[in-house]
Amino acid sequence: MTESNFDFDLIVIGAGYGGFDAAKHAAEKGLRVAIVETAEMGGTCVNRGCVPSKALLAASGKVREIANYDHLSKFGIHTSPVRFERAKISDHANNLVLNIRENLTKTLTRVGVQIIRGFGRIEQHQKVGVRDKNGIDQIFSCKDIIIATGSSPFVPKGISCDGRTVFTSDEAVKLEWLPRWIAIIGSGYIGLEFADIYTALGCEVTMIEALENIMPTFDPDITKIAKKTLVQSRDIETKSNVFATKITPGCPVNIELTDATTKKIIENLEVDAVLVATGRIPNSKGLNLGSVGIETSRGFITINDQMRVINDKKIIPNVYAVGDVTGKLMLAHTAAAQGVIAVENICGNSKEINYKTIPAATFTHPEISSVGLSENDAKEISKKDNFSLGIVKSYFKANSKALAELESDGMLKLIFNKDSGKVLGAHIFGLHAADLIQEVANAIARNQDVTQLATEIHTHPTLSEVVEVAYKQAAAQIK
Ligand SMILES: Cc1cc2nc3c(=O)[nH]c(=O)nc-3n(C[C@H](O)[C@H](O)[C@H](O)COP(=O)(O)OP(=O)(O)OC[C@H]3O[C@@H](n4cnc5c(N)ncnc54)[C@H](O)[C@@H]3O)c2cc1C
Predict the structure, then answer these.
(1) Among 353, 384, 429, 456, which residue has the least CB neighbours within 10 Å?
(2) Are 167 and 161 in contact (CB under 8 A)?
(3) Radius of gyration of the chain (CA)
(4) What pTM did the predictor assign?
(5) Is the C-beta atom of 417 inside 6 A of ligand 1?
(6) Band of residue 382 on the pLDDT scale cut at 50, 70, 90
(7) Whose CA is nearest to atom 45 of ligand 1?
(8) E strands, 264-338, where?
C-alpha cells in the first residue's frame, strides 16, 4: 500500500491532552489526521482532572482565605462569617469543563482533524478498528498510529464504589454534596488537593495512607513543613501504615482498617463518605495490542524517548504511544509534550523527551512543586558518576513579598552538581510554588549552571527572589 492509499496519514486513539496535542500538531504539519474518542473530548484532564479540580480549588481557596479570620485580622481586616453555595461552586467547575471541552473540539475541527466517535483498537499493522455506540464497526487504514488512551482511577480489591458515598476523583470533581466527615484513601497529590477543597468547605477529613508516612511521594524536607500547614493545622486526622481493606458504601460508610505491618484488622471506621485516591491504571484493555506484537507491563505500554512503542527492546513499526497509558510522569503537560514529540518523529524529525525537565505541581493552598531529581536519586547518581552534590535551601520567611502577604511558610530546596554547577532538581513548598518551579525547570532544560543563573536579575519584591537566593547560595559553593 502506498502512502496515498491510506485513509489517513495518522490515527490517534484517545482525545485527552496527549491525543489532542498530537492530532493538532500533526494536522498543522499537513498530515491527514483522524482522532478516535469513545467518551468526552478532552479526556481526564478536561473532564475529570486538572480543569474541574483546579476550578474547585480556586473557589474553595477563596472561601478558606475569607474564613481565615486570624490571618485577615493581622492586616486589620474583619469579615463576617463566610457564606457559600456548594451548587454554584460545582457549576463553576462544570461550566469551565464545558467551555474548555468545546474550545478543544473546535480547535481540532478548525485545523482539519477528523473526529471519529467510538472505541478504537489496533486491527493489525497500519489498521485501526472503531466500534461506535450502536455497535457499528469500521476499519480505517493509516500510515502511523498514536495510542493516547490515558488512565482511569485504581480501586483496590475490597473497596466497592457506589459513586455516591464511596467514589473516586471522577465523581469528586462534580462536588454533588459535602459530607460532614470524609475519609480520603491515599495521600498523593489528588488526595491532598481534595483534602484542601473539603476542609476549606467545612468537612472533617480522615486521611488514610498505606505507607509508613503520609505524603510519601514528596521530598521529605518539603513534606515536613508542608504537613504542618496542609494537614496538622486543619481538620484532618491521619492514619498511616494502614490499609483500607474493606469499604462498604452506605449511610454510614464502613471502613475496615488493617495494619500494614501486622496485617491485623485494627479498626472499623464509620464515616459519611470515602474518596478513593489510590493511584491510576492505564487504559490499555481492548486495544488488541497483541495483533501487532505489543505486550504491556502492568498494563502500561513501553516506549522509547521518541514515543515509539517497544516490545522486547524492538521497535513496533508505525505505532507510538503517549500520555498516562505509558506510565511516565502521569501529567497533562507530559502527555501533550509526548504527543508533539511523537508527531515530530513521524515527520522524520528525530526528537527525544527529557523527563528531568518536566515540572509537577500540587495545587493545595499553598502549593507544592518539583522538577528533576529527588535528593535520594541525586545522591546515588553523584556517587555513581563521581561528582560532588550540592543542596541549598531558601526560605519564604526571608522574602519580602511572602512577608507582605503574611504567607511566609515555605521553602525551596535546590539540588545541583557542585563540580559543573548544573541544576539537577528543585522542590518547593510555599505561595505560588507551581509558578515558581517553571524557572528552575527552564534552567534544567537549558542545561544552565548556577554561577550564570545567580547573575540573573529578579524583580523586587517578588516570590521569584526565593529562587534567586537559592541560585546565589549555590553559586557561592562552586569552587
Ligand atoms: C483529579 C485529577 C487532577 C489532575 N490534575 C492535574 C493537574 O493539575 N495537572 C496535570 O498536569 N495533570 C493533572 N492530572 C493528570 C492528567 O489529567 C492526566 O495526566 C492527563 O489527562 C493524561 O492525558 P492522556 O491524554 O494521557 O489521557 P486521558 O486524559 O485519560 O485521555 C485519554 C482519552 O482516551 C479515551 N479512550 C480510552 N480508550 C479508548 C479507546 N480504546 N478508543 C477511543 N478512545 C479511548 C478516553 O475516553 C479519554 O478521553 C489530574 C488527574 C486527576 C484525576
Answers:
(1) 384
(2) yes
(3) 24
(4) 0.97
(5) no
(6) very high
(7) 14
(8) 265-271, 273-276, 280-282, 308-311, 314-321
